[in-house]
Amino acid sequence: YQDAVKLYSEVGKDQDDYSEILARLGNCFMQLQDPSNAEHNYKKSLELNSDGYVAGVGLGVLEIQLNKLNDSIKRFTVLSEKYPDSDKVFSGLGMAYKESRNIKKSIDSFNMALSINIENKSAMSNLLELSYNQNSFDLVEMAMKKYLKINPANTEILIGLAGILFKTNRIDDSRDILSKVLEINPIHEDAKDMFNQIESQTEGVY
């Protein structure tokens, strides 16, 4: 990233895509954990192109990190109107709402991100976490089943779905999924632990 900063910094201001260069510079500084320079470059980029996608998303994420949650929510809301097909925008909006403790809007935003791109890992993991906190699993269960139609052997999602089924007392379904995971990976520790937990809790019932 430091090498990228050097290369980007050599680009002249007369370049047609200079606003994009500044946005990419902001991303590099984010990776280098230099929020001051990241913010500076994002804002300079947006001065040149107020509709800039990369700078807008980057600054929105940075504002979450800086606890400027109202600014981030406002920014991602505007971006969602400009870029309604961007899962990253809705995932960022979900994070901003999550940090501001607006759980309903956070869940709605992550669900929207997954409706655009079911493979958005951040949206999926955050939706799963919020579902456990709210003890409400319908949305994340549907999302995981949709994901598994595309990637049926993804053990991480299979484990997540098995956990939901176990939590909602669908023991046989949970056991079946865990058996599938152990067929894919016989030494999968999480699957073995959950399977043993199910067996110990249902011993004497089945």
Q: Span between N and C termini?
A: 57 Å
Structural class: mainly alpha
| Oligomer status | single chain
What does the average pLDDT come to?
A: 93
Shape: elongated
β-strand amount: under 5%
What's the alpha carbon Rg, rounded to whole Å?
21 Å
Order of helices and strands: HHHHHHHHHHHH
Helix count from the secondary structure assignment: 12
Extract low-pLDDT stretches.
none
Overall number of strands: 0
- Biggest sheet overview: none
What is the helix content? Answer: over 70%
Describe, in plain words, how this protein is organized in 3D:
The chain starts with a helix and ends with a helix. The model has no long low-confidence stretch (mean pLDDT 93). The longest helix has 14 residues, at 18-31. The chain is mainly alpha-helical. Helix content is 77%, strand content 0%. It has helices at 2-9, 18-31, 35-48, 53-65, 69-82, 87-99, 103-116, 121-134, 138-150, 155-167, 171-184, 189-202. It is elongated, with a radius of gyration of 21 Å. It has 12 helices and no strands.
Question: What is the strand and helix layout of this fold?
Answer:
Elements lengths: L1 H8 L8 H14 L3 H14 L4 H13 L3 H14 L4 H13 L3 H14 L4 H14 L3 H13 L4 H13 L3 H14 L4 H14 L4
Helix pairs in contact: 1-2, 2-3, 2-4, 3-4, 4-5, 4-6, 5-6, 6-7, 7-8, 8-9, 9-10, 10-11, 11-12
